[in-house]
Amino acid sequence: MTHEFKHLFNAALAHIKKGGKVVMASVVALEGSSYRRPGVRMLLLDDGQMVGAVSGGCVEKEIQRQAVNVLGSNQPKMMTYDGRYRLGCEGIIHILIEPFSPSLEMQEQLKNHFTNRRSFSIVSYYEKEAGVSAGVGSIIELEKGTFSFSGRILTSIKDDKDSFRQEMPPCFKLYIFGAEHDAVALCKMASSLGWEVTIIASPDESKTISFFPGASHFLTPLLEQIPTAGIDKESAILIMSHSFSKDLKALIAFQNTKPAYFGLLGPQQRRERLLNDFMEFYPDADLDFLEKMHGPAGLNIGAESGEEIAISIISEILSCIRKQTPMALRDKTGQIHA
Fold it and tell me: What's the number of domains the chain is made of?
């Protein structure tokens, strides 16, 4: 959810810079089932706009109505939404609605965390009784300090309340080696999920970053000098250049990385040829690296077009990072999010 919080944070700063006021609504507890789980957030602006959502649409209008009081009083409050007696999910959602006015120091430190891919934590203190409460609120724990969402002195947030802690890893990052039309489709879809996308193309490609809507970076290094320093456990790599020799050089460059997912486009026979050639150059390579490779990349959904292939690949990446075995939800027992 880090990318969602980053989006809300940037939207809040833009509105505050214009002299506006902002309220943050956070789902902090859930009894039963709901469209989203605790930790999801949205913004309410004093001009009536909403940024983000915490459900499929059935809760937002009620949050907006109650946020008017928070904008006026500058006091946090708790809201309870009982979906058992309304349309939608059959659960009770507890939502913390609080002023969001981060200090300048918090703004700068959090921006630094986003830029340098550092983790942080958010702790929300709440109670399940609806209404205004001076002792509830959220804090953010950064490497060089702890700050409240509202800018209030931290001691005003009571630690005798219930609490919900959320660990926020760096935004997920996707490295795409290749610059053909299927890489464009994958870039678009990944960026729509909030992933940071880096396109790596060989120097002979006649492409620019404008060819890849949603890309954060576009690199054209020598194939022997592909940068790998930024690849971490919150990253995925997809090799898809459609050139055997280029893919082999990329495989060599990425061999010592430890991403959450490593995929290779193309049929099994091509993968075996690549791996055989790779082992001739590096017979002592880490076999664990090769065994974890997903090739052909993607789930078997009958994908044919570039967009469908992108769905297949992203679905497999999500199943890996969420540690889920792909299956039809109708065949799953228990709750969807269990």
Answer: 2
